[in-house]
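User: Reviewer 2 asked us to show a designed sequence for the structure in our supplementary figure. I'm pasting the structure tokens here. Could you produce the per-position amino acids so we can include them in the response letter?
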């Protein structure tokens, strides 16, 4: 499917695409292109639908906290790797 932007930079998605994927999208800039990813009206509900009952008893704030901790660990590990490379 090919679409052009209008004079204001808007892209109009066909009705069948909106009916299938919804009206909200996240725009992701990648090195070689731009991608649109549908966003559920209730992202947590979308996650639960995708993974079944794996998080059924988990509150949203707990999931956010766990995700933040994981990202912090990854950032620290990457920083440690860079500092070790700089020392060599």
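Assistant: Here is a per-position design you can include in the supplement:
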């Amino acid at each position: 499917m090919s679409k052009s932007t209008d004079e204001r930079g808007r892209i109009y998605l066909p009705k069948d695409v909106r009916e299938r994927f919804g009206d909200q999208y996240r725009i992701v800039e990648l090195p070689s292109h731009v991608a649109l990813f549908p966003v559920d009206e209730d992202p947590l509900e979308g996650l639960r639908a995708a993974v079944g009952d794996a998080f059924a008893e988990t509150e949203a704030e707990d999931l956010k906290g766990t995700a933040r901790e994981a990202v912090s660990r990854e950032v620290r590990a990457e920083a440690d790797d860079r500092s070790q490379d700089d020392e060599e």
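For the response letter, you might also mention the following. The mean pLDDT is 83. Residues 58-87 form one domain.
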